[in-house]
Design brief:
8 helices, Aminopeptidase, alpha+beta, 293 residues, 2 domains, 5-stranded antiparallel sheet, binds coenzyme A
Length: 293
């Protein structure tokens, strides 16, 4: 099977969204875990958004007869050519009928080549733990396991917390300071993207100091000075966000944060893995990663 890799074009989006929906759906139904994409429309929204952003590079796998076989994306919002930022990979999907024939490997090599072309050496992703194929594929291509991840269903806080306020552009300097301190790399352009998308996010300030921030959903992330403060941010944000935005990712090495979330009535949905290539510095303080951005 002669397969070529091309950049994702707007006219590819409907077919690639269907493949994304079916690839994840087939896997997740087989293992009886909750679907990541509840409908083709949700997949179309995500693939369409990633395909249309200048800070993302999308790659499509195309069969010899022109049939689309799958796609993969590299997000590099905070990678400025100085190798300071960390790029994110995903979602990668191959049509169920085309899996196991090397297409996923070609799509991963495409994003890794794109990262190298842009001078990016640090790349991260979140791996679906039930998928032994992707676990093996990423490991073969040089990704190292860094942490277990639990997908958390937050329990909305029963009352408002006066220390919280919705993130606005005026918070970006504090967000830059917090993300560099906790993550050892910039995230501020990623957050600017969240504000443009309207992703729900809150700042926590007390005694005149910014203590942390959090954006909800698979796409968001957050940092705070203590596990208690990050758990409070997660549940406060859930109180103000529509239910389909609620899911969030917890590193299992964050035991105190895990307990703080469970104490607030949050529940665990499924397990994933955090993997990366290049230099890795364990984030400090309480932190929550995103799916790949
Ligand atoms: C993940 C996915 C994109 C992989 O695509 P694919 O085309 O099937 O993968 P490939 O055939 O290119 O590569 C699989 C590699 O893993 C290896 N592999 C697969 N299962 C393995 C296992 N259980 N143990 C060891 N190696 C395994 C294969 O031998 C192959 O290695 P090779 O390239 O050295 O020969 C595809 O399975 C998919 O779309 N899954 C559903 C969505 C999903 O889970 N996405 C990833 C989320 S983390």
């Amino acid at each position: 099977m002669k397969v070529t890799i091309d950049r994702v074009r707007p006219e590819h989006v409907p077919s690639l969204a269907r493949i994304c929906f079916e690839a994840f759906g087939t896997l997740q139904e087989r293992h009886h875990v909750q679907r990541d994409f509840d409908s083709i429309e949700t997949a179309q929204m995500v693939i369409g958004m990633f395909a249309g952003r200048p800070d993302f590079a999308g790659f499509a796998a195309i069969d010899h007869d022109g049939t689309l076989l799958g796609s993969n994306f590299l997000g590099f919002s905070d990678c400025n050519g100085d190798d300071e930022g960390v790029a994110g990979v995903g979602p990668i999907t191959v049509a169920p009928s085309a899996q196991g024939r090397g297409v996923g490997k070609l799509l991963m090599q495409a994003v890794m080549n794109e990262a190298a072309r842009r001078g990016i050496s640090k790349v991260r992703l979140i791996q679906e733990a039930i998928n032994t194929t992707s676990l093996s594929l990423y490991t073969k291509l040089g990704f190292d396991w860094r942490d277990g991840i639990s997908l958390i269903q937050p329990n909305p806080a029963p009352t408002d917390d006066p220390r919280m306020s919705p993130v606005t552009p005026a918070d970006l300097p504090d967000i830059d300071t917090i993300s560099r301190r906790h993550y050892h790399a910039p995230r501020v352009k990623e957050v600017e993207g969240f504000l443009k998308m309207g992703l729900p996010g809150f700042m926590l300030r007390s005694n005149g100091k910014a203590r942390g921030y959090f954006f909800t959903s698979f796409l968001g992330h957050g940092f705070a000075d203590t596990p208690e403060n990050l758990a409070a941010l997660v549940c406060h944000t859930a109180r103000h966000a529509p239910p389909h935005f609620h899911k969030t990712l917890l590193p299992l090495s964050e035991n105190e944060l895990h307990r703080a979330l469970l104490a607030r009535g949050c529940t665990s949905v499924k397990l994933l893995n955090y993997m990366s290539t290049g230099e890795y510095r364990q984030p400090q303080g309480a932190w929550m990663p995103c799916i790949g951005m």
